[in-house]
Design a protein that fits this description.
The chain is an alpha/beta fold. The protein contains 12 helices and 9 strands. It has 2 domains: 91 residues, no CATH class; 180 residues, Vaccinia Virus protein VP39 (Rossmann fold). It has a 7-stranded mixed beta sheet, with helices on both faces. The radius of gyration is 20 Å and the shape is globular.
């Protein structure tokens, strides 16, 4: 009903290897007569109808499966839905490997941020998250640390930032957290951040940017304009559910949710060309995401 592993298999040299469709193949529609088209089309219709009894699936179709709202729901990992069937479907949704990977990298990101704060030995630290969502994991860090931290949360969605403001107010963290609406890829938006970050965060961003040159240009602009002491990002390197996501689910714009998988070495090289160095890389247990911390 929910996400399923759908990669084609190829046998060679006595081994079975998964072959994922390329980004170009995922971008192109399947022929109407293709059995795969029929399968993914019917699955999408089922998910968008009966599946919406699940709160997680409904959140995905309402806000986009690539949205901060959906990511935050997956992080919480508490099945909700209409009637028993809705909660049952939601548990299936939350137990998919992609969702498990999301939750794993949340912990990895928190661990790497806490390690960076320990390195600074209680020095004042200014953190900027350029595509923050609600930034639940940063609130967890702020509650648990004794470090002197100020945070600027930026997101393209004002509704997401409103939810985040409510969290900050509830946790009495309004003096530590500021908010700014804007597109992370907008050069002028970057220029409006006038204070140099010690740590810049942009997790979950590169996978939804389809054009390689846009990622490369963005990294160069981040280095030139903001010049952070360190940058934290993640890269989706492979995903056994990538075709199902691309052909049956919707993104924030209501279009097919096509994610761009990239080799971690490629993105690290782009960051190095922009001026970052000393990549520390950690993979999630499912080998879907790499989380990278680099120095400015």
């Amino acid at each position: 009903m929910a996400y399923m592993q759908t990669e084609r298999m190829k046998r060679g040299n006595g081994m079975i290897c998964r072959i994922s469709p390329s980004f170009k193949q995922l971008k192109n529609p399947l022929p109407l007569y293709s059995p795969r088209y029929i399968y993914y089309r019917l699955l999408g219709l089922l998910l968008e109808s009966v599946g919406r009894l699940s709160k997680g699936i409904d959140t995905g179709f309402t806000h986009g499966f690539d949205s901060g709202m959906t990511m935050n729901y997956i992080y919480i990992n508490k099945p909700q839905g209409s009637l028993f069937i809705g909660k049952y479907l939601d548990r299936i949704f939350l137990d998919q490997v992609t969702c498990k990977a999301f939750r794993s990298i949340k912990q990895i990101q928190s661990d790497m941020i806490n390690g960076y704060l320990r390195e600074r030995s209680e020095k004042a630290t200014f953190i900027v998250d350029l595509a923050s969502g609600k930034a639940d994991y940063l609130y967890d860090i702020l509650r648990e640390t004794t470090s002197n931290i100020e945070v600027l949360l930026c997101d393209i969605s004002e509704s997401v930032l409103k939810e985040s403001r409510d969290i900050a107010k509830k946790l009495n963290l309004g003096n530590k957290v500021k908010f700014k609406q804007g597109n992370a890829l907008d050069t002028e938006n970057l220029r409006r951040i006038t204070r140099k970050p010690n740590l810049l965060i942009e997790v979950g961003l590169y996978g939804i940017i389809h054009d390689d040159e846009s990622v490369k240009r963005h990294l160069s602009e981040v280095k030139e304009i903001l010049n952070p002491d360190a940058i934290l990002f993640n890269v989706q390197t492979q995903n056994p559910q990538i075709e199902l996501i691309a052909r049956s689910l919707k993104n924030q714009d209501g279009e097919r949710c096509v994610w761009h998988l990239r080799p971690i070495d490629l993105v690290v090289r782009w960051a190095e060309e922009a001026g970052f160095r000393n990549a520390e890389i950690r993979m999630d247990p499912f080998n879907i995401y790499a989380v990278v911390l680099m120095r400015g």
